[in-house]
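Team,

Forwarding the record for the chain on the shared tracking sheet. I've put the sequence and predicted structure together so nobody has to dig through attachments.
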Amino acid sequence: MTFNISLLLLSVPYLGFTSYDLWMHKHDRHVPQIEKILHAITVPCILTFLYFSIFDLTSANSTTIASIALLITLPCMIADEVIYHKHLHKKEKTVHRLAGVSLITYIAYWLWMI
């Protein structure tokens, strides 16, 4: 199994901001049930995307699986952001923006790599 160290390192900021955001969800506010369902879809899909974009980057199957996972993830993340994150505390909005920039940077670099 091969992996791309630059993608692995580039995933760290996104995972860090997202982990902090998940912690805030548990401690700072009530998360509605529908938002929890969006998270239940998003989390395994984004982890699948990250795994298959980092490991076996040269494999067509890995790229296909990563792409499908990303295509499932993005609409869920956008819906979550548009519907539930309009009125968040400033600190949580900042974390979301940083996570978003980190993920967009990661995706752009991944697309450049494939």
